[in-house]
């Protein structure tokens, strides 16, 4: 990958991460400052989704900064053994995938509740 493409990709990822943090902070700020929203029990899944997404995006900031400046630990470009990476990386990768699946299902549930509220609540009451 040439330098310009790498720079454009890194700028896009950093701006996307900043946008993600700001959007989730707005959702959480709106929830905790508005008493009507806090009284609504149905919005708790959306708040949980915003909190977890804020947590994930906050954890990725140091990695994006390191990616942006091109930092390599100890100045050495590491070449990892694929068996070690697979052994130690498959557990956390499975947890991240399940977390992404759960947050996606929560988001779909909330979109469905907003898109067709009467049908959604009639199916939930059965």
UniProtKB/TrEMBL annotation:
GO terms for cellular component: membrane. The keyword Transferase does not apply. It is found in: Membrane. InterPro entries: 7TM_GPCR_serpentine_rcpt_Srbc, GPCR_Rhodpsn_7TM, Mito_rRNA_Mtase_NSUN4. Residues 23-126 form the G-protein coupled receptors family 1 profile domain. The keyword Electron transport does not apply. Pfam families: 7TM_GPCR_Srbc. The chain crosses the membrane at residues 12-32, 44-73, 93-116. Keywords: Membrane, Transmembrane, Transmembrane helix. This is G_PROTEIN_RECEP_F1_2 domain-containing protein.
